[in-house]
Amino acid sequence: MRLADKVTLVTGAGSGIGRATAELFAAEGARVVLADIDEAAARRVLDGLPNASECLAMGCDIADGAAVERLFAAVERRYGRLDVLVNNAGIGQVPGDGFEHYQQRLAERGAQLAAGQTPEVFTDMIVDLTDAGWRRLLAINLDGAFYCSRASVRLMIASASRGAIVNIASLSALSGEGPLAYCAIKAALLGMTKCLARDLGPRGIRVNAVCPGPTRTPLMQSISLEWQQALERAIPLGHMLEPEEIARTCLFLASDDSSAFTGQTLSASGGMLML
Predict the structure, then answer these.
(1) Given 79, 102, 147, 182, which residue is catalytic?
(2) 182 labelled catalytic
(3) Which of 151, 155, 218, 246 falls 20 to 30 Å from 85 in CA-CA distance?
(4) What angle, rounded to 10 degrees, do the helices at 39-47 and 16-27 form?
(5) Handedness of CA 168, 74, 202, 205 (dihedral sign)
(6) 84 beta partners
(7) Contacts of 122 (CB under 8 A, 6+ apart)
(8) C-alpha torsion angle, residues 8, 13, 17, 21 (rounded to 10)
(9) How far is the C-alpha of 256 from the C-alpha of 258, rounded, in Å?
């Protein structure tokens, strides 16, 4: 029971990596706060936890700073402290991000290369990315992590918790492969991880990041089957990662097993990236 009696908060807990993490944390004895923009999905996960009566499910749009403050106020009222935050909530596509053009051009370019032709198609991601698309992705994937981190640190300090923050980034942040905004924003999350780790280390608060490789999540289902198959072929371990595998990495970083780790990025990628 590596998280016995720990109060933990997981964003995006209604599905995918967030769901797997919430379930694993509960199995390890944590009192889990499941936050998701889809409150009904979070409640469905809550109902299946072994200690559901000790846990809490709440709807929250993490891109809304005021909503995040309300979420953490509820956590403080119920538990009086927070020990672990997992910044998992995120999104890959929004209207105006140009992803549909990117995916089509990527397939066409791949077909030309496979045919031994000199490619005449270019992805040109930045050409189609609108201001609105960029800002919405930024709001959810980076602003949300900032709002939740700020609120969690305030609560950890107030309750004298030697806590842990785990940021879910992406292999794209390290490789530069993928949609422009997603790569850039996830890379920014890694920068925030390192800065917070230096800032909060003297308080005993550890901050680390996980960069998952291709994982079977709802986000993965948004890309073409051909692209999914190409990604899977590129994984040295030979299989698409499961959310539970990423959750176990989060558990390591959230527990005292990783007491010597802060400011680190773990590439849970099946070997796609070897550091």
Answers:
(1) 182
(2) yes
(3) 218
(4) 30
(5) negative
(6) 8, 164
(7) 105, 109
(8) 30
(9) 5
Which amino acid type is present at position 193?
T
What distances in angstroms separate CA 88 from CA 16, 53, 194, 211, 271, one per listed residue? Answer: 10, 23, 17, 11, 21
- Burial state string for 231-254 with b = 16 or more CB within 10 A and e = fewer than 16: bbeebeeeebbebebbbebbbbbb
- H/E element holding 9? strand 7-11
Q: What are the average pLDDT values for consecutive 10-residue runs of the chain, which has 275 residues? A: 97 97 98 98 98 98 98 98 97 89 88 93 93 96 98 97 96 90 96 98 98 85 74 86 96 98 95 82
Domains in the chain: ranges and CATH: 7-96+136-266 (3.40.50.720)
Question: How far is CA 116 from its chain centroid?
Answer: 38
Comparing C-alpha atoms, which of 181, 12, 190 is closest to residue 89? 12
Q: Cα 74 to chain center, whole Å?
A: 22
